[in-house]
Design a protein that fits this description.
110 residues; two-stranded antiparallel ribbon
């Protein structure tokens, strides 16, 4: 039998790994809030010399057509593009739908 997982929001967010933290960020500052949208989830990166892989967690709140990994790549490249660390030509390594999303988000931030 598994140990109890603590915060009820962990159940709603389908978080069952102890390396994944759930932190409240309720806009109403309600201490008892368990609304999944009012929590941020922190997936901890293993220590530098730890061979354990990062915990795998798929956000059930994700309603976009992109996978979690694709969203991570999109967000990273939007930051790089807006900081002029990469150029639009460097996005040729991505599939067209991901490249279009990166450009759309980068244009919306500038």
């Amino acid at each position: 039998m598994r140990a109890p997982i603590g915060n009820p929001a962990r159940v709603l967010l389908k978080v069952d790994d102890e390396r994944i933290q759930v932190r409240p960020c309720c806009p109403f500052e309600n201490e008892r809030c368990i609304e999944p949208g009012h929590y941020k989830v922190i997936v901890e990166t293993p220590f530098k010399y730890d061979d354990a892989p990062r915990p795998i967690w798929s956000d059930p709140r994700n309603t976009s057509p992109f996978s979690d990994r694709e969203l991570e790549e999109i967000n990273e490249n939007v930051e790089l593009l807006t900081a002029n660390e990469i150029m639009e030509d460097d996005l040729g390594i991505f599939p067209e739908h991901i490249r279009d999303e990166i450009l759309k988000r980068a244009r919306a931030t500038t």
